[in-house]
Each structure stands twice: as structure tokens, then as C-alpha cells.
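Note to self: keep these together.
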Amino acid sequence: MGSSGSRLGQSVHSQFLPEEQAEVDRLFDALSSEKSSAASPRSFSLKALKSHIGEALPPEMVARLYDGMRGVDLTKPAKGPSESVSQEQFTVSMSHLLKGSSREKSFMILKMISATDGPMKAREVQKFTEDLVGSLVHVLSHRQELRGWAQKGAPGPPPRVQALAVQLLSEVKFADGEKLLGPEQLDYDCDPAVIEDWVFRAHLVATFLSVVIHRGFGLHWPLDLSTLVPERQVDQGQKFESVLDLLSVIYVNSHLPREQQHRWHLLFSSELHGHSFAQLCGRVPHQGPSVLLLEDLDGHVFGGFASCSWEIKPQFQGDNRCFLFSISPSMAVYTSTGYNNHYMYLNHGQQTIPNGLGMGGQHHYFGLWVDVDFGKGHSKAKPTCTTYSSPQLSAHEDFRFEKMEVWAVGDASHSKLANSHKSILDADPEARALLEISGRSRHSEGYRQAPDQE
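Structure:
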């Protein structure tokens, strides 16, 4: 970049498409309309920014954005934050936040956290992260873009805002290579290099910031939210409250293969379909990749991603794209270790091997297990699950649960089935499951028309 303000402004302008730059200019005109004077360069105040954004963002995030923008110094040597935000400062800031590299985004984040140059404490980064996560929920709710999901809890920072903030902060790596994993490290210093590395690796930070800017300012150029917030589909308009809220869906969805991120379709819910392993077996197999969730009686929420269709058979199935995860009391994802291929297991009607649904570990010692005696399960890991290196996910090793959900992710295979010739067993999942459980063959299966090849 050049040493003069005008050269900097010109270089920043080039990062926007012409129509985007025109909207940024119109936005600045609206913000600075109350300060039009030939005697001084146009600028806008915090009051003007708050008035323009209104209820779209929380006041603390509006103040952070304003402080970040006026902290951009276009002169050398730096003279500190200006009294208001000029057009060049606004353009530079919007360019960095929306189009910038990890270095440019981290530069703005530093300005949004603290007005002083130099290292800041990790607890300051923690507060910024909580504000960012809370602002994402706030603006998506305000713009009515929750796509069927809901944010649970009373006003104020809910536990899952804090849980996701903690998870994002776990990606902070200090100069000595140590990660921010506990409250004892909140007094550690974070210099600009640490923040830049964090923004580069914790991609959700930049994504959340971009959404907050786009939707907070009401920008009109396209922003595809479909891979951030999947569309929630429940059959026949049934009213159903998931154990997942908006943030936990966003977190799990961010770890799915991209082609599975845009839609979640409910296959099974113990609340809607009953506490029945037969119903589970009737509704879940042959439906493509899926996410399963449990909430134990102690309030721990956890589950797994099945990368392939479930099948009822006495062998392990799946591949190394499968993973286990925790949502509450903490958020974490546990991926394949490569130690074995015990990714998925679903079986019933056997006398010598376990009957139930499992992910990871081995027979009688699964990382996640749902017993055929529905409502019982276990999560065994001493010290960790061999398949996923996951810890014990439930509050107790052997647990009980009342809430279980399974969601097909991506293009729901039920739409493909709708175009095929269905038998009566396809229409009645419990009948199909009972037939498979009994070990009897489905005689009509061999006479079906072969499905279209994709």
C-alpha cells in the first residue's frame, strides 16, 4: 500500500466490484448526511452509525465497529483514533472486513478490541468473540433468516453463545505454541501475529464477521447463507422443537462436507415417532448421510455424523468422514484417528453380537451407543475412543435418554424415493423394520425396477 491516504483509498477501492463500491459510497453518504460542510471533510459519528443500524446489531457490536473504523490511521506516523470516521477510513474498514486477507481482517479485529497498539490480554479476545457470536444470532434473528431454527433461552448471553466462543478461542495458539484451553490462560498476551494466525485457522470467525457486516448494514449484494445455516425441514408441518439451537446447528454443519451443508431433513425423533428402536430402524436406513443427536437425562447433548446411509447388518460400516461431537456442556468435534474402521454400526435380531446403534470403539465399548432397549446407551472412552479419540460424551458412562433425533443432511433421499416405484414396505417404515429385524427377506426387492443411475 502507498504511504498517502489517497493512494491507500484507491488501492482499497479496487477490492470492490463497481456495484459494490457504489453501495459502499451510498452507505457512507447516508451515514455522513448530518455532517456535510465544505469547511471540513465529511465523516460520521457513533450516533449516526447507531441510528442507521438501529436494532439490527447489539449496541456493543456497533460500538466495536465504530471504534475499529476510526482506529484505521491513513497517515504515518500514526496519530491514534480519530474523532469520527472519514470516507477513506470507512472504505478501508469495509474492504478489510468483507474482502480482506487474514492479516487485514485481524488488523480490524485488533482495532475493534482495543484502541491501543501492542499485545492485548486473551480475556479481551474472549469478550470480543462472545460479542461476535451473540451478534450473529441477533442479526439473523432480526433479519428473519433463521431458516426454521431457533435460539433458545432468555435474553442475555445464553450458554451456547459462551460454549461456541470457548470453542473458537481454543484455536488461539500463543507464541510458544500453547493453546488457549482454560481460564488460567486468559491473562496471557495475544500479539498481532497470534490474532492473525487465529483468524486464518478459525474460519468461522471471519465468516461470522462477514455476516454481521452484511446483514447489520443491510447490504444488497449477494451473500449465500445456505452453507452456514441449513434449511430445516420437518414433514407435514409438524411442530417440533429440536435439542439443537441455531448456534449448535451452525457449529455441527460447518464440519459436514460442503454438499451436505444446505439442508437438514428430520428422519426420526423420539418425540414425534415414539421411543421405539423399530421406528428408528424403519426411518433411518437407506436415507443417505445423517446427523444423530441425543440429550441424556443430565442435559448433555452429543451425537455423530454418519457419512453414508445406515444399513441394518452385523458389520461395521461408514468411512473416515464420520465423526462424533459434543454440544453441551461444551462444543467439540472428534474425527477419525485411522486406528480402526469402526465408524458406524446398526444391528438387530442377532443373538451373539450386540443389537443397537453405535459409532466408534468396539462391541460393548462404543464411543456412542444406543441400545435396542430404547432409552439406554453408553459412551465409553478410557482415556479416549479408539476410532475418534473422543472422550466420554455423556454425563455418565452408562446413560439414559428421552430425546433422540436423526436428520438427513444434504439432498434428502426421500425426494429420490418419491420418483421411484414404492412398495407398501417403503410407505410403512415400522413394518419394513420389523421384517428386517426378524431376518426374513423382502421378496419384492428382487423385482423392483433398477434405480436411475446418477
